[in-house]
Design a protein that fits this description.
The chain is an alpha+beta fold. The chain has two helices and nine strands. The protein has one domain. It is globular and about 35 Å long.
């Protein structure tokens, strides 16, 4: 029988091993491994690092990076060679929907979103904004993430 307060070597080894495993695995949960990503036409894509409600429109920069163009929660997108159009629920609030237009001719890797992103618009304002921006009337939201709609 062991005196009180004495811990076995096996228990110490298990505790140390568990702590080491947690120190290695826990930080990995902060990186976008296994995140949700949907490609549009390059250089644009939708991605959420951890949960779908983080879905953001990005412009790809380099091999592994991107610059945010429209913040969460983006749930629908359409694109052609001139424009990208998106719908989002701001802050994940599904009772509100905002619309955005990205003018691809004004977008560049070294520009902030204010250079190329127009919006937000309500549904009523979006039709007029599309016309003013020269968005093709046949451009539709061809990618719709039903789980976020």
């Amino acid at each position: 029988m062991r005196p009180e307060g004495i811990v076995s070597r096996a228990l110490c080894r298990r505790t140390v091993t568990t702590a080491c495993v947690l120190l290695v695995i826990a930080p990995l949960s902060c990186f976008p491994f296994g995140g949700d990503e949907h490609s549009l036409e390059e250089p644009y894509y939708l991605a959420a690092t951890d949960v779908g409600t983080q879905m953001t429109l990005y412009r790809r920069v380099g091999k592994d990076g991107g610059i945010g163009r429209v913040e969460p929660t983006v749930f629908a997108a359409g694109w052609d060679k001139h424009h990208v159009i998106v719908q989002r629920h701001p802050g994940g609030d599904r009772s509100r929907t905002e619309f955005y237009i990205i003018d691809r001719s004004k977008d560049a890797p070294n520009c902030g979103p204010e250079a190329s992103v127009i919006g937000p618009f309500t549904a009523a304002e979006f039709s007029e904004a599309r016309r003013r921006a020269g968005v093709d009337s046949t451009l539709a939201f061809t990618l719709v993430l039903k789980s976020l709609r």
